[in-house]
Amino acid sequence: MSRLFVLALTVSAVLVSQAGLAQPVATADATRLLAGVWRAVPGGMYAEDEAGNKTYPFGRNATARIILTSDGFGANTLQASERANCVIGPGPRQCTPAEAEAAFQSASSYQYRYRLEPDVDSPYHGKMIWEVDLSVYPNWKGQTLVRRYTIEPDGHGWTLIAPLPSNPKLGFQMRLERER
User: Fold this and answer.
1) Which of 23, 35, 39, 45 has its CA at a distance of 20 to 30 angstroms from the CA of residue 6?
2) CA dihedral sign, ordered 106, 34, 110, 65
3) What is the pLDDT of residues 102-119, one digit of tens each?
4) Count of domains forming the chain
């Protein structure tokens, strides 16, 4: 019986050590799948409320590009597809106050370090933690923003959700496809 106990203890130790190794490998796989250049699917950027109503903060034809590196850097640019140009001047500092306000309201751009915290049941969905270091919206600089991700196992598309505090399954959503 002691031999059976030692065998059971050994098998348990091997299973525990393999389980401990599985999570980092899964996280690395999800990070590898997310690394690249992504664009928003047409109509795929919207906010959804508890009643299922969708609004399109940047319009139905909004565009976005997300660039993620395998070593944890990210950059996002989102914008309305029909944005008015500033009437005068060779650069953004020559826009009128009204033109500058319209430009600010119709686009967002920020950069960050990111890490993944996959859900226990699958590396293909979980939390994406952003440590923002540059942002057009100054209040995000230095902030930690938590998002949810779900990536297709083949790496061709994924969904990003900026959850509402009251219901993490709702909020601003972006459906993305690989650009290259």
Assistant:
1) 23
2) negative
3) 998 999 999 999 999 999
4) 1
Cα–Cα nearest to 58, from 110, 95, 108, 98: 108
171 to each of 45, 118, 155, how far by Cα in Å?
11, 19, 23
Structural domain containing residue 79: 2-178
- Three-state DSSP at 30 gives helix
d(CA 88, CA 121): 55
| Single-letter residue type at 77 | T
pTM: 0.79
- pLDDT per position as a tens digit, 51-100: 888 999 899 999 999 999 999 999 999 999 888 888 887 888 889 999 98
